[in-house]
Amino acid sequence: MTDISTSSLVRGAEPEFQDYVALLKPRVMSLVIFTAMAAMVAAPVSVHPVVALASLLCIAVGAGASGALNMWYDADIDAVMSRTRERPIPSGLIAPGEALGLGLGLSLISVLMLSVFANPMAAALLAFTIFFYAVIYTMWLKRSTPLNIVIGGAAGAFPPMIAWVAATGEIGSAAILMFLVIFIWTPPHFWSLALFRNDDYADVGVPMMPVVAGETSTRRQILAYAALLVPLSIAPAFTEAGGPVYLAVSLIANAAFLSGALRVAGRDAAMATADRYRAEKKLFGVSIVYLFALFSAFVVDAALKIAFGPSWPVWF
User: Fold this and answer.
1) Would you say 258 and 230 are in contact if contact means Cβ atoms under 8 Å apart?
2) What is the pLDDT of residues 90-100, one digit of tens each?
């Protein structure tokens, strides 16, 4: 990591509230909150609304803390990449030390409060998730191996498991499957982005799969992960968290995702640059809808179980 001191920043203005919000990666946080909320709603227990809301807030704050620590460490490469150069630190709005302090402070608060509102196991999982994202992924894997996303994807897969443990006090088969779905979904999701942002990663020396293995190999791996995702993402339908709605949605979502991955794998590398990454950009968008659709189905099935009681089919 290249040190960026406060004096080297060109401050055009004092930081505002939205700059600190941006430091927490709100887009990533929204996905974390949604998947965690879906897991908590799908858990086969009744959770007091205050406990549920407080637990979700702690998980969200922990995710934001991870984002701040990631931006602090990656400020040097963020300043070079076109996708990230307007972030608060490289743009000079927030000093690196402020970001580090905020990240560490929010990490401590989120873990301690989750232990109070939920249970120590959920808090320990949240602490490990923050550590995994900030240290294992950001400081080690991201700049050292093309498997950075493959292994590092675990950080984004933990929130539903944390929420499940916060609700039930234990790790169930449904929580493990939710983890695996996001874990296997992450590489094709992120590599589709990396394919059309390949130059950015090459410029800063981050060994993303397209940079190291090439585009053809990356496209094939996207298809392989999409195929592996099919049985893993259907399996939760047959747990206490799933049901008929989840089964139907997972079948439709997997058909769309696998179709997009097939188009990406079959792209001609010699195509004109203007058309070359159309399939990759489309798959990236489909992948986001895919995950939201699956976890929305958990919520719908949970609501129908409450509405219809024992008459609503549950297969486990």
Assistant:
1) yes
2) 998 999 999 99
| Residues 80-89: contacts with CB under 8 Å, at least 24 apart | 80/200, 80/203, 80/204, 81/197, 81/200, 81/201, 81/203, 81/204, 82/200, 83/197, 83/200, 87/22, 87/23, 88/15, 88/19, 88/20, 88/22, 88/23, 89/4, 89/9, 89/23
Structure tokens at 306: 């409450």
Q: Using CA atoms, how far apart are residues 67 and 53, in angstroms rounded to an integer?
A: 21
Spatial contact of 205 and 145, defined as CB atoms under 8 Å apart: no
| Helices and strands in the chain, H and E counts | 15, 0
pLDDT digits (tens, 9 = 90+) for 228-254: 999 999 999 999 999 999 999 999 999
pLDDT tens digits, one per residue of 137-181: 999 999 999 999 999 999 999 999 999 999 999 999 999 999 999
pLDDT tier at 272, thresholds 50, 70, 90: very low
Please tell me the distance from the alpha carbon of residue 154 to that of residue 144, in angstroms, as a whole number. 17
Q: Tell me the H-state helices in 171-277.
A: 173-196, 198-204, 209-213, 215-234, 244-265, 273-276
Collapsed DSSP state (helix, strand, coil) of residue 263: helix
On whether the CB atoms of residues 58 and 114 are closer than 8 A, the answer is yes
Q: How many angstroms separate the Cα of 220 from the Cα of each of 82, 192, 224?
A: 27, 11, 6
